[in-house]
Design brief:
single chain; mainly alpha; 1 helix; 0% strand; rod-shaped
Length: 41
Amino acid sequence: MKAHNLSNKDMHLYHLKRRLLVALIHHEKCILQIRDKEKEC
């Protein structure tokens, strides 16, 4: 196993987790907006 491939995989996972976290936060904001204004995002 090459170290370069491992670091690329780790980097990919890191970005994936970040994107997921951002999406989750955005989703929570959408839910709050829907609850407040009763309309979809």
